[in-house]
Specification:
Elements: H1 6-35, H2 37-51, H3 56-92, H4 96-111, H5 123-145, H6 154-182, H7 208-211, H8 213-224, H9 226-231, H10 243-258, H11 262-291, H12 297-325, H13 327-347, E1 352-353, E2 356-357, H14 364-392, H15 400-412, H16 417-429, H17 437-449
Antiparallel strand pairs: 1-2
Length: about 450
Amino acid sequence: MSKPTTEQTILIKRVRGWMMFDWATQPFYTLGLTFIFGPYFAGTAAEYYLSRGLDLTTANANAQSIWSWGQALAGLIVAVMGILAGAYADSTSRRMPWIWASSLVFVICSWMLWYMVPDGSAMWSSLFFFSIAFIAAELALVFTNAILPSLGDRQDVGKISGNGAALGYAGGLLSLFIMLFFFFDEGGKTFGLGLEPGFGWLDAQNREGTRAVGPLIAIWFAIFMLPFFLWVREGKTPNRLGGLRRSLADLRHTLKNMVKRPSLFAFMGAQMFYRDALNGLYAFGGVYAVLVLGWGQTQIGVFGILGGLSAAIVTQISGKYDQKLGPLPVIYFHIYVLISVSLCIIGMSRDSFFGLALQEGSALPDVMFYICGAGIGGSGGGIYAASRSMMVRHTNPDRPTEAFGLFALAGKATAFLAPLLIGLFTYWLNDARLGFAPVVGLFILGMLLLRWVHPNGDQ
């Protein structure tokens, strides 16, 4: 076996450094958005509103509303800034300064989550810092994804995308273990092991173990982004002339011509629907577990660990099939899995399964929902990695950051749709299970639009 050349060694380091971005950022989504800070923020906000004299239902509604509106506003800013900043970065041939700036903002704002004290006095400032951290993470992702096309050919890109996403989910899972077993302090003791939070250094009464999620996210990111900044380098191409005016002109040209590219246009539309449906499953899976199955924190913690483990394994396997078959068949497969999961959720309750009565205390609903969690985690990770790979096949080699700004836009432009439809259907049908019916429809719409997507893309 021949020794790698200097160019090959540099490329290998670039690939490994690029993949570390997913590992460094995933804890923010796993710990911050989904399993730790998000629920803690909602609970603290609800307690604050209760102390102001509101009834329980109104307090919970207010808490959920401000959290949801914070995410919606942050998503809208990402959708607009991602495509504009991406166009500017392409016009100036510089992406790394944007990643450095986004990373600095992300570390500072993530650390500030420590100050979300239980009395709710820092509620609004904590929501502000979390939203800014979210925006910074998503913008850094746009610029990092734009580097992907330069890491290999079409077949290699699919595997690299899958391996990077899988590594990210593994990082999220490991950070969740660390947080739950050594810091999380609901009830005064850590999850599973029953230890004093922070090995006795943190005050459970003031929820310092849970609040440590902010510094943990910040420190994790600062350490594991080092390989990225050390090994990922941009070419020394001089900046193009034109700046903002040139970038806006190029962007207008891209958007105008997108309708003339049927494959790209269909792919963008398909993503809007199936990624929004997936976000609906992420956002409401825990709500379903509590409202329909009556789960407690322990079962939800196991659910999260199982979903993260499945995501890490399945996403890597999906990357290998992407390399062999291309991303489009992989996307189709995962949509079918997610439709099956959604139908299972709709047809299942504590005492029945698709109309078949279950014995009192039956474990079948719990087992099935754990399986659903594995399906959501695995196919959620797989479909994201394959979608990123398919976006490369629709990317103008001269405008990669702008293309992944569009990719971010597709994931955020209709972020309100699934929650809105789930809420409306739940209200109309007065049934939390049937409220998931629109998710199936969104997946089907996305799959139908994929019929016009060319397997080899359109550049």
